[in-house]
Amino acid sequence: MQIIVTENYERSCEIAAKMIADVVRAKPDARLGLATGGTAGAVYANLIKEYREGRLDFSKVSTINLDEYIGLPPEHPQSYRYYMDHNLFNHVNIDKQNTYVVSGMGDIEQNVADFRRKVQEEPVDIQLLGIGANGHIAFNEPDSVLKEKAHVVELTESTVKANSRFFDSIDEVPRKAITMGIREIMSAKSLVLVATGKEKAQAVRGLIMGDVIDSRNPSTVIKLHHNATVIIDNALYELVASQKD
Ligand code: GLP
């Protein structure tokens, strides 16, 4: 696993965006694995900038997202479909038919089955990841076991609380989501995880220090990937180094 420590979050996102852009430039019909959350925002802003400046073409690109809340329709501002449309897709020349965010509405069992099928259609060339303060990747929450394939997940109290900052009140945060499974995430040809913020220090310590793979910190599985990069800023790195296990 490659670890890059940058001067700040903005630089981390520039580097992650450049990695994604380089994949698309080398393979114009690349399949991108995309993430939502506050951290990913500036990665997308950089990709939009590259597109506007004529250095990136999304016309043949396809995408698949990691997860979606159950119960939020696509037009809900906190749904991950809405996030992707507004933070990336509406601003570049991607064909929306080639973008996939699992639906959190209607027949959930059917949606999970569709998601699993969709993941298998074609390998992801590069998967962008964030990390939850509890170490979750996508919505694979800390547990005694991890699941291979897409599934419904009950969000932990800490995730509901962390994500409540995007909602008017904590009561509006969905308690369930559909997430890509661990094996599916790991099947991407390359992974790039960006982390920032002091609340992530303990989880990131588990990820970048020591050699433990621990289902109570799901991010640690990416140590097993042959082409994974973790990008963190120096402020977070210093906190990580000063944490106790
Ligand atoms: C959400 C998403 C994750 C994301 C995480 C971190 O719960 N499901 O994919 O990595 O939160 O988000 P943030 O960057 O907002 O801290």
What are the main properties of this structure?
binds 2-amino-2-deoxy-6-O-phosphono-alpha-D-glucopyranose; globular; 8 helices; Rossmann fold; 3-stranded antiparallel β-sheet; alpha/beta
- Class per helix and strand makeup: alpha/beta
What is the residue-averaged pLDDT? 97
Biggest sheet strand line-up: 1-10-9-6-2-3-5
Model regions low in confidence, pLDDT < 50 over at least 5 residues: none
Which architecture name does CATH use?
Answer: 3-Layer(aba) Sandwich
- Beta-strand portion reads 15-25%
The CATH class turns out to be Alpha Beta
Q: Into which percent range does the helicity of residues fall? A: 25-40%
CATH-defined topology: Rossmann fold
Name the ligand types. Answer: 2-amino-2-deoxy-6-O-phosphono-alpha-D-glucopyranose
Spell out the helices and strands N to C: EHEHEEHEHEEHEHEHEH
Total helical elements: 8
Q: What global shape is seen?
A: globular
What gap, in angstroms, lies between the N and C termini?
A: 20 Å
Total domains = 1
The main β sheet shows up as: 7 strands, parallel
Number of strands: 10
Radius of gyration, taken over Cα atoms and rounded to an integer in Å: 17 Å
